[in-house]
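Recap for those who missed Tuesday's class. We walked through two folding examples back to back. For each one, the amino acid string is listed first and its predicted structure tokens come directly after. Nothing is annotated here on purpose, so try labeling regions yourself before you check the end of the notes.
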Amino acid sequence: MQAVLLSTTSLRLPATPAVQTQAGEWNIAGSFQTGNGNESVQAQTGNVNVAIAVQDGNNGTATQVQSSDGPVGFPPPNVAVILQSGGGGNDATQVQSTMGGVYVFPNIAGVLQYGSNNSSTQVQTGGYNVSGVAQVGNNNTANVVQTTIFPTP
């Protein structure tokens, strides 16, 4: 049985980003922030990573970077979720990469944003990629880039 590392951040002070960095297997990072101008950065390296960022307020920034350092034989290596609500002007960025191998399972990324003038960017490389963006409001933008790397015979 693998150990689970749980890291949470809540109610940060102004101008102080919530930064979480994890390496190894079975990582779980959670960031929960309220108020305006929040910043959350989550970086994970290893296999079977889960990152969740929740922000309630305006002009928040959430960034998640996940990389799998090799093929894994069980799904999924990377899961990233960002939820932003509270008005608008929020920015969500998710970057996921998985090295090729015989048993490559999906990167899974999801963003849910409420309000106007929000932006979302998802970049997924390797594996079989699954992406979802839901934006409720006006003048929102979403960019998704997916590249699959298949193993060589």
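Example two. Treat it independently of the first, because the proteins are unrelated.
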Amino acid sequence: MSFTPSLCHLPVKILVTTDESSNAEPLLDETQIKVDANLKPLLAEGKIPMVSGYFGRNTDGKLMTLGRGGTDLTAAVVGYALNADEINLYKVEYTQTEDGWLDEWQPGYEAPTAHCSPITPTQCLRVLVVWLLANRWIGIVHDAEPTVTIPVMSYDIAAELAHFGKKVLHPSTVFPAIRKSIPIFVKNNYDHSHPGTKIIAGADIDLSQPVISITSMYDTATRCLRGRFSSPRPQSI
């Protein structure tokens, strides 16, 4: 049995970011230079670079973190710089205890019946509600029917859903892929056979199904401002 050699590669050697600590954004052109110098030679030698995510360095060499979704964003930036055919994001599903601690890894949608037998019905309901809120299932799913994975959506729809509360994908993740029209696949760690959700350019979407998904934000009010000769402009308050 033969194995392809791999090599751990820290992102600080390739990921160049802006100066906003804990919320830095990758600089694609500068990162491209680092990837050309550090990762592409490894691939040419038949080695697979294993790049961790979440942090890089600014142009002055200071350590910067990317914030929420930083690992997915790192994968998208590396895929962009390598001119990848596709970017695959694998998500881990899990259950939580009543106190909010990680309880058990889950391969996907599976009701946690085992947790209900030794506790009261009220406690069981609490565990079930926490579990439903914590799990994201496979790919990007319909909240009303979480066993149904949305098979395909456009970059802009995915970014909008993420911006307005869909936690499975950070909105910044899609932007590097858009620059080079690289498809993104959102899959599941424990079920590699499932195709997940494919995120591609809007021109490739089937227009016979114009409404892909709807998202909303709770505890948010809007007001509409109108000048004498202007159109109304909604603002969140």
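Answers for example two:
Residues 109-122, 124-136, 229-237 have pLDDT under 50 and may be disordered.
The chain has two domains: 1-84, 86-237.
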